[in-house]
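Entry for the shared binder. Reason: the reviewer on the internal report wants the predicted structure included alongside the sequence.
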Amino acid sequence: MPELRLLSYNVRSLRDDTAALARVIRATEPDVVCLQEAPRFTGWRRRTAALGRATGLHLVAGGAPARGVAVLTTLRPVVERTADLPLPATPGLHRRAVALAVLRLGHARLAVASCHLGLAAAERRRHAALLTDLLPRTAHGAPLVLAGDLNEPPGGAARATLGRLLRDGWDQAPAGGRLTFPADAPDRAIDAVLAGPGVTVLRCGVPDPREGGPGAADLRAASDHLPVLAVLRVAAPPAGPERVRPAGTRRPVAD
C-alpha cells in the first residue's frame, strides 16, 4: 500500500513572504499540495508557476477557474483526470469552487479535492451537503480526501455534514498541532484534511518545528494560516481476474 504526503495550505494569495512559503512547503516534503487562496487574478498562472518552480510542484487542477483553490503535485503521482467544480453562488458573497484531481500511485488510486468554504454558516452547510454527493461521483471510484480551509471549528454544522462521508485526519492520528489560524498566535482549528474509506491516516496536524518541521519564523511569515500535513496510506484495489496471468507469461509494461 503506497504512502502519500499531502499538505493543505491557505496561502493568502501569496501576499506574504513567498520565500518563507517555499521553504515551509519544501520542508514538509509533500507529494500533493492543496492550496486555498491561490492566485486567481491577472498573472495567476505566472505566480503559481513561480511557486511551483521553487517547490518542485506542478499545478494539475484549479487556480483561477476554481476561484482560487488548487491541487499541485510532484511528478510521483500519475494524474488520471481533473475537474474544477463550481459551487452554487450566494448573492453578495465570494463565489466558491472545488479543485479535484484523481491520482494514481502504482495500482492505487486517490481522489484529492481542495476546498475553501465560506464565511457564512448557512452557505457552508449547503455546500457541505452538496459535496457529500458531488465528490464521490466525481472521484470515479477512487478513495477520497478533502483538504482545505473549512472556516469553522470541529463540531460545526458543515463539518458534521462532511463527517457523514469523511473522517477528520487529526482525530484519527494526531501529530503536531491542530490550531491553524491566525498563524502568529493560532486559536482556531479551521483547516483540516478529511479522509474517506480506503485511506488510512498515519499522521495529521500542523508540522512542529521542534520535530524537524518548518521553522517557526517561516511559518509565521509565509501566510496568515498554518498548514496541515497528512501522511496517508492508500489501499490498492483487490486484484481482479484480469490480473491473473498464466505462469511464464510476460507482465505488461503498463496496465
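Summary line for the report: The two ends are 17 Å apart (CA to CA).
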